[in-house]
């Protein structure tokens, strides 16, 4: 991967939704660590926790249940702007829009809103010029919140666990991406499929990965995220692997992914 060129000014942001309707595939881990690796490369990054479970916020050392204002207030309350909700993270150049269980109410409340699919896009519009990347960690479903994320995004990254049953859901997700592109967001494209939780020591892992490449070709990132005990440790520590275990293979993989994302952007 070539060394990314330094930039002399920031924005407008490329907005990327990290999506998979199946849980436990490394979405949140990938959002945090890709964001941190991009920030290391001098990019300004905003992470959006768009999952009512608040795992992204927890993974960055925030206690979501103690927050007065979250993504929910930004979406549903007039007069609340991004700056009212924004939190700094321990990573220089990387900010967080946190979330908690309140966000699950937004899914219901948005149903009656006008232009309900564009609510997140409108909320983020005032800060798009301040960042180089906005990464949205979607909830594991294809509901209205995920459609909001896809409507706001320029690109989609699909983290895909290297297990046979994980492959089945990807076609459904890509179908949803196609529908959003046709009806709501013509600029949306698939940035790539990211193989996660890979274990090259097992035949199963290697077979699944080759099937993924067979099925999706150039849409699969060269970077592969292997299973490691370090990722659960980082969640407890509340910081990215790039700072918690800077010289680990996991940190190196996300740095490689960041360069790939820059090259594809």
TrEMBL record:
Superkingdom assignment: Bacteria
Cross-referenced InterPro entries: AAA_dom, DNA_Partitioning_ATPase, P-loop_NTPase
Coiled coil: none
Ranges where the AAA domain occurs: 14-189
CDD domains: ParAB_family
Stored Pfam families: AAA_31
Protein's name in the database: AAA family ATPase
Taxonomic source organism: Jatrophihabitans cynanchi
Biological classification of the source: Bacteria, Bacillati, Actinomycetota, Actinomycetes, Jatrophihabitantales
């Amino acid at each position: 991967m070539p060394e990314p060129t330094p930039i002399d000014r920031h924005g407008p942001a490329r907005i990327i939704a990290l999506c998979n309707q199946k849980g436990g595939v490394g979405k949140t881990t990938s959002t945090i660590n890709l964001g941190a690796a991009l920030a290391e490369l001098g990019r300004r990054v905003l992470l959006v926790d768009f999952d009512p479970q608040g795992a992204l916020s927890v993974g960055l050392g925030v206690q979501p249940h103690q927050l007065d204002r979250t993504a929910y207030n930004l979406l549903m309350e007039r007069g609340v702007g991004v700056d009212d909700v924004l939190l700094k993270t321990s990573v220089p150049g990387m900010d967080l829009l946190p979330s908690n269980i309140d966000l699950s109410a937004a899914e219901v409340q948005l149903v009656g809103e006008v232009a309900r699919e564009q609510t997140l896009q409108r909320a983020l519009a005032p800060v798009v010029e301040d960042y180089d990347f906005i990464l949205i960690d979607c909830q594991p479903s294809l509901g209205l919140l995920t459609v909001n994320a896809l409507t706001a995004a320029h690109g989609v990254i699909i983290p895909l666990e290297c297990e046979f049953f994980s492959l089945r859901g990807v076609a459904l997700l890509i179908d949803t991406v196609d529908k959003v592109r046709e009806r709501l967001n013509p600029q949306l494209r698939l940035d790539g499929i990211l193989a996660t939780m890979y274990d090259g020591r097992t035949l199963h892992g290697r077979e699944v990965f080759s099937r993924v490449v067979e099925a999706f070709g150039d849409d699969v990132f060269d970077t592969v995220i292997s299973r490691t005990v370090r990722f659960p440790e980082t969640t407890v520590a509340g910081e990215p692997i790039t700072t918690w275990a800077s010289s680990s293979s996991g940190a190196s993989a996300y740095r490689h992914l960041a360069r790939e994302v820059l090259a594809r952007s």
